[in-house]
Backbone:
DNA sequence: GACTGACATGCAACTTTGTTGCAAAAAGTT
DNA sequence: AACTTTTTGCAACAAAGTTGCATGTCAGTC
């Protein structure tokens, strides 16, 4: 785990610091998505609010994590797959949000279908969010 | 227009007030989606911030408008089609967000494809957002 | 059209969420 | 170990959203 975290940071030319290690660890442990608030709560008093914001920002820019749009407009982040590179994401799987427990799960095996868009529009990215009940809550 | 607005409000058992009429009018005029901020700006000094929040909340509950998830996590609202009823929305069209001008457009003709979800999950609602360049910006 | 109960609004105060500038601290480099 | 660059924490701020309560407005009834 330690080694994996270091590797990810170094691969992205980021210095290895306490907050980055801790936040990355949180993402690796939870196989769902995390809201900013979750991260703040789980790191407790350890890091400043601002640091969490900036760390997430950095991870986003480097393509380590991606953000997920939700219907209630909270901000969610999840780890990217390996083939995400800086700038452009290949994060074409569907996200599932449970209406009961609120957890967000990446359905890594379900790819977003490419749909037909009316002429005139130039689509660049497709995102799909399914809400409902997860296996534990139904 | 006047008559249409009154009808919508009465159909939903809402009293016809100045703010509701004005905000509903804004939605009817713009055929795209509106952010809370847009509405506040366009109504000017006329209504209190709180009133705008509460009016949108009410419209959401009654199924007059629906919220749209965006990639940058701002809150967007758009008018629902007629077959939206209180509680449950049948808002199964795709939303397009332009990366340049930021406008959100409802692609009313493009329906969200029903995809296969792994067993265990109980899907209730599908939402799809496409980002890219709109006709004017490309 | 005036009366009345129910609902909507405005105000104030507050919480939560996100941002910016800058000095101190820690990381990476030689 | 000394130096440079990056990251962090603090403080102050800005924006976004919420809550309680007194006042005002609406819809229905007489």
Residues:
């Amino acid at each position: 785990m330690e080694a994996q975290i270091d590797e990810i940071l170094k691969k992205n030319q980021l210095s290895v610091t306490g907050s980055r290690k801790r936040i990355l660890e949180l993402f690796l442990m939870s196989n769902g998505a995390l809201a900013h608030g979750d991260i703040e709560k789980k790191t407790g008093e350890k890091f400043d609010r601002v640091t969490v914001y900036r760390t997430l920002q950095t991870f986003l820019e480097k393509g380590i994590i991606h953000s997920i749009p939700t219907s209630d407009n909270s901000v969610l982040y999840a780890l990217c797959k390996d083939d995400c590179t800086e700038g452009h994401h290949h994060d074409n799987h569907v996200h599932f949000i449970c209406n009961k427990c609120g957890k967000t799960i990446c359905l890594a095996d379900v790819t977003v279908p490419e749909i037909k868009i009316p002429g005139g529009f130039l689509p660049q990215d497709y995102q799909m969010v399914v809400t409902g009940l997860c296996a534990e809550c139904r």
Notes: Strands of chain B lie at 34-35, 65-68, 76-79, 93-98, 104-111, 122-133. The first helix of chain B runs from residue 2 to 11. The mean pLDDT of chain B is 81. The longest strand of chain B covers residues 122-133.
